[in-house]
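Example record

One chain of 93 residues, shown exactly as stored in the release files.
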Amino acid sequence: MKYLYGIIVLIEIGAAVVSLLPILMSPMMFDAPGSTKDPATWTLLGLLVSFPVSVGLGIWASQMQDGWSDTFLCLALPLLPIIAVLVLVAAKM
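Predicted structure tokens for this chain:
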């Protein structure tokens, strides 16, 4: 189980590092006229920023847990911003 935990943590850290590129490009979301007043744009920006934060919180919280089921539940925390982005994209279509 410890190997599985290590693999999941490495995958999450890699995903957090890769997610920094869209955050660097996020000012371009506000180039279009009126996009600064669009709540969906601000929500997407918040979700982009929250993903690396949730990865860090999930890894930290998983270190504080005693049981394996609680540990893997904490490691699932970064899935929340991903699900929120999918719901937001589906609502805009």
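Notes: The chain has a mean pLDDT of 83.
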